[in-house]
Specification:
Largest sheet: 3 strands, mixed
Helix content: 40-55%
CATH topology of one domain: GMP Synthetase, Chain A, domain 3
CATH superfamily of one domain: K homology (KH) domain
Structural class: alpha+beta
Order of helices and strands: HEEHHEH
Strand order of the largest sheet: 1-2-3
Length: 133
């Protein structure tokens, strides 16, 4: 007889600590970006989301560009400032390990705009087809 250990109620529930740590990291990075970062390439950059692994050793930080921002330049600036961010996070957050930061461009807003434009084109085509009938 075999046991199925994937039944509901068995095993550990998913911890909320990575979410809390991610939110704390996001808030602290936003404050650091506004107050202490002097790199002009990071002007107008915002952090949209932070995801932390369950062991709290890696944090994926998603950033949003200002209008007309250069993704490559901002990515290089964030990579250069990664050590500064980690050292400040270590001082601000009381964690055994300070997560390693990996920065990703969050293109969700661009995708939403693109889909919105496509839907508007479809609506216009339908109106044109209805007017012809």
């Amino acid at each position: 007889m075999e046991f199925d250990f994937k039944l509901p109620g068995l095993g550990k529930p998913k911890s909320s600590r990575p979410k809390r740590v991610a939110e704390a990291i996001k808030n602290e990075l936003a404050v650091l970006l506004l107050r202490e970062v002097a790199d002009p390439r990071l002007t107008g950059v915002a952090f949209s989301q932070v995801m932390v692994t369950p062991d709290l050793k890696l944090a994926k930080v998603y950033f949003v560009l200002p209008v007309g921002g250069d993704q490559k330049q901002v990515g290089k600036a964030l990579k250069k400032a990664r050590g500064f961010f980690r050292s400040r996070l270590a001082k601000a957050l009381n964690l055994r390990y300070t997560p390693d930061l990996i920065f990703y461009h969050d293109n969700l807003n661009e995708e939403v705009d693109r889909i919105d434009e496509l839907l508007q084109e479809i609506a216009e085509e339908r109106r044109d087809n209805d007017d012809r009938r």
